[in-house]
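User: Please fill in residues for this 413-position structure.
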């Protein structure tokens, strides 16, 4: 079903949305501060930030219990067929989807100078890699795993509770920034309607654009399903229906419009991009292209103006150009011929290697761990007792294949 409440907004109306927040969640914060001690609210907030396990209602204050239980009504335009289709797609291409988010969706959002002001004001991604970037990226990854599991956004399930938790965290951040001389006239209200809509579209439209740049083929129906899924997430996270498109065509138009409206080079955007690049370099390293992560981000963004705003490097030397072009050519070719039984025996383990190396990096370097439902583990081939020899064997296979394409030696870590 289509969200019939949605209407393509003008730039003038989008500017007005920058002064609109989330009255329901804001009222929750007011109620908490009227009935609880500030230290208890702070402890609750910190627990939600640090504990990524399933939320138990019975240990929460009654205000929070009521909030979680009373805000699970689905929009009248929800389409459960599309929700199921998006979940199946995630099982199929989850690792590729993660690449599109990490190397395309997240960084291109850093051109929105007013939006990233909230991130840097709260220390998001701007601290050292261990306590800042890695932890925040892990939280984002866990959120996606939570909400995109089968039936995860059904009533009282982990995914729906995670969405409402994030909505509460947003309201707390907004409350405290506004108390500390936040310039709403310049930046808009913290985590306002336009910023929330743009963020939700990042997970749908933004990721789809990245997938297309990698030649991961998804159908028009699958694009609609993924955008529809995230529009339902947007509903529960507090995005108003009239700025929450549920089809790919409408979503893409609004996504590009918001990006173009907000795109300004800023020191904050440069800092966030550098932090993300440093994180990525820690687990993905090509001997012949030491800045491969920046080249990949630049390629997946696919917009020279935005990439320049973020200070992303281009491949400079001939070796870097040959290495990167060979890498992208190899990746796109493999993705373009998916469905062939022989090719799938290569692409699926390649996807597994990326996911495994990322998870190993989180755990070994930062002692951070993602909780996976068994269904996702089985589809992606990720287990607690991962077979290291399998991974190493495949790294050798990649290197051998890459060598034939003038990639040179590839090293993952």
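Assistant: Residues filled in for all 413 positions:
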């Amino acid at each position: 079903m289509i969200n019939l409440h949605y209407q393509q907004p003008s730039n003038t109306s989008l500017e007005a949305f920058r002064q609109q927040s989330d009255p329901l969640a804001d009222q929750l914060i007011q109620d908490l501060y009227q009935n609880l001690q500030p230290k208890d609210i702070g402890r609750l907030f910190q627990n939600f930030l640090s504990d990524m396990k399933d939320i138990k209602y019975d240990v929460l204050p009654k205000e929070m219990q009521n909030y979680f239980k009373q805000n699970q009504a689905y929009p009248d335009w929800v389409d459960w067929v599309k929700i199921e289709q998006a979940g199946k797609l995630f099982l199929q291409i989850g690792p590729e989807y993660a690449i599109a988010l990490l190397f395309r969706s997240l960084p291109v959002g850093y051109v929105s100078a007013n939006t990233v002001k909230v991130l840097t004001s709260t220390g998001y991604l701007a601290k050292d890699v261990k306590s800042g970037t890695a932890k925040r990226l892990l939280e984002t990854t866990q959120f996606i795993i939570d909400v995109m599991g089968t039936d995860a956004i059904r009533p009282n399930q982990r995914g729906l509770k995670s969405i409402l938790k994030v909505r509460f965290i947003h309201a707390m951040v907004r409350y405290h920034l506004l108390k500390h001389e936040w310039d709403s006239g310049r930046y808009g209200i913290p985590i306002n309607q336009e910023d929330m809509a743009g963020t939700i579209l990042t997970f749908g439209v933004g990721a789809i654009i990245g997938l297309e740049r990698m030649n991961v083929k998804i159908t028009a129906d699958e694009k609609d399903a993924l955008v529809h899924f995230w529009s339902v997430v947007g509903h529960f996270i507090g995005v108003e229906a009239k700025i929450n498109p549920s089809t790919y065509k409408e979503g893409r138009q609004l996504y590009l419009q918001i990006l173009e409206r907000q795109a300004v080079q800023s020191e904050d955007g440069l800092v966030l991009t550098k932090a993300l690049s440093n994180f990525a370099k820690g687990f993905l390293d090509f001997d012949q292209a030491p800045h491969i992560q920046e080249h990949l981000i630049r390629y997946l963004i696919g917009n020279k103006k935005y990439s320049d705003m973020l200070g992303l490097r281009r491949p400079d030397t001939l070796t870097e150009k040959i290495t990167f072009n060979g890498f992208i050519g190899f990746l796109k070719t493999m993705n373009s011929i998916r469905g062939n039984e022989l090719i799938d025996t290569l692409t699926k383990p390649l996807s597994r290697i990326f996911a495994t190396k990322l998870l190993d990096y989180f755990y070994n370097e930062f002692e951070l761990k993602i909780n996976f439902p068994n269904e996702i583990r089985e589809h992606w081939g990720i287990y607690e007792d991962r077979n290291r020899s399998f991974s190493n064997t495949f790294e050798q296979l990649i290197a051998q294949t890459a060598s034939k394409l003038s990639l040179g030696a590839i090293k993952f870590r």
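For context: The two ends are 44 Å apart (CA to CA).
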